[in-house]
Amino acid sequence: MTEGNIYSAVYSGVPVFEMIVKGVAVMRRRTDDYMNATQILKVADIEKAKRTKILEKEVLVGEHEKVQGGYGKYQGTWIPFNKSKELAERYGVVPILAPLLNFELDPASIQERSANETHTHSSSNTFVEPKREDAPSQQRNYSPSLEDALPPHKKAKTTSNEQELFQPSSSRSQHTTNEPTSADHNRSVLMSIFLSDKPDQINDFLNQSHGKDNFSIDMVIDEQGNTALHWATSLARINTVELLASKGANIACTNYAGETPLMRSVMVTNNYDAQSFPRVFDLLKETATFTDNKKRTVLHHAALTGSIQGRINAAVYYMEILVANDLCKPVLNTQDALGDTALTIAARLDGAALVDALVRAGAVQNTQNHAGLDVQDYKTENNEDSTMEEASNSQSQRVFATSSLYSKKPYAPSQRGKEIVATVQKIVDALDEEYGSQLTAKEHELQSVQEDLNAVTQELEKTRKSLEERQAESQRLSEAQQKTRNLEHALQTGWQRLESLMQASSKPMPTQADLEQFDENEDIDAYFNIPDLQFSDTIDEEEKKRQLKEHIKHIRAKVRAYEANNNALDDEINELEHQFTEKEMQCKRLIAACCNLPIDKIDDLVEPLTLAIESDPPDLDLARVIGFMDKIRRQGAFTEPPIVTNHTKPTKNTVDSPH
Hints:
Elements (H helix, E strand, L loop, with lengths): L5 E6 L2 E8 L2 E6 L5 E2 H7 L4 H12 L5 E3 L8 E4 L1 H10 L3 H8 L5 H8 L47 H4 L16 H15 L2 H11 L18 H7 L3 H9 L14 H5 L4 H4 L3 H8 L13 H8 L6 H12 L18 H7 L3 H9 L14 H6 L7 H9 L18 H90 L7 H6 L23 H55 L6 H13 L7 H13 L25
Antiparallel strand pairs: 1-2, 2-3, 4-6, 5-6
């Protein structure tokens, strides 16, 4: 191959575009534009150890497909086109890979050549899914396709030696025609209908072509011998299946592998995605007991679908619908050419859900295959797969395969090569299982530690909340105790005031019974209430003057009483202000002594000290502060309060007697 030129090739049955750069074969798959990340990193001259780290950190974390086994150059990690381009930009190889990255092929030139070039029946068993703009998303699910069904948006950007680079593959049987026949035209029309999925076109075509001599509704339309009904069931085109059946399509027709349309329907996930398999099975259920060239039933194929990564749910979906129908009971324990039943295959693939479905349906568990192994053997030694080569081949045949019309040579691996691949695959599987077991153990250990951490965290959170509640209760208790002391002090002061007033008026102190009968809600001003002066029309002027003088006398007495009360309040205010000034000075002396500062500097410290006190936590123990102040007072820093006379302390607040 010449560097810089783009070639079409087929590796392991997969068609690719290939370009040699720096001696490295860089490939881009024709079906989905996936590129080999390993090859891109090789072009960037990154050594193997660093390539492995880059693949683990940057490539394997996203969407990817890891290929092991098969043709050597095709192996590696395949990633979507956009990610491939980003990887090439990141490592500076976009300019040298630009021809392959920007390459687009004109489908018109391919179709023109395909009518005159060699047609083959390829031995490849790997399906290539066509890309088409109006087809529903298959999520990379394989379904039947022609090798030359390229996307319609491809445009020609080829060199002058394009004809030299793209040559048809050699074949076992070939024929050359100068003009397309009517049968070729019918096949082409059917294929274009499936690529566009327009039921109206299918109906019109069938109505126009049905009954003509050169048209058969069961004609083979691809290189694997599949008919239109095979394609419709595989692509979950239910309306097309019903239309074909109504036009007399043979539901028991088989392709070159002996596979019926019902078998093809369980080999892909399209019917699972569309949840259409019950309708498909209802239309094709008469073929439920058929076997293919390898004596496999639809149950065998449903079990084999579970061996493909990401398809176990679809396989279980198909299997449960199949075994629930009595038509599948006769073939529940049918053995294929290798002696495997559907249950044996499910057990070998470690498909627990498939095994459960088959066992519930009554599948026999002690049937041995030609290797002498039964279900229990595969359960205990799941790694011993004596029929790995056959399982690999059957997995390959799960999809419609076709060889490239432009491949350089047909892919035909030797028996020795197959044995080497099988041996390497066993080693890789053993390493994968060992690594998986270690990873599972570490995950369980991590999960256990995480659960313990969550439990400790929850317990710590509960303890923290409980501590906050206790601190809040302690704070409320301290505040309540302080309020109690304040009330006791106020009560004691009021009692002393009452004693002085009663002694000044030469009246005895009220007893406990008097205090209990006193109405604390009584309005004191009611005793000084003076009614408005009103004169009767019958009294004379002298009587009016006398009543007026008496009213004025009462008003003056009330004024004098209020003035006396105001004077008493003023005296009390002055006394409190004096006490406040004295206590303020005592506090200043205390602060000066504690802070070792002159007393004239204390005023500057009042504001920061206040802020410091206000910033104290809510659990500040006020009882300890009060105890400290009591110690200071006992040491002489504060004057002793007045001595209280030994009278009975009242239990309620009292007021001055109006009398």
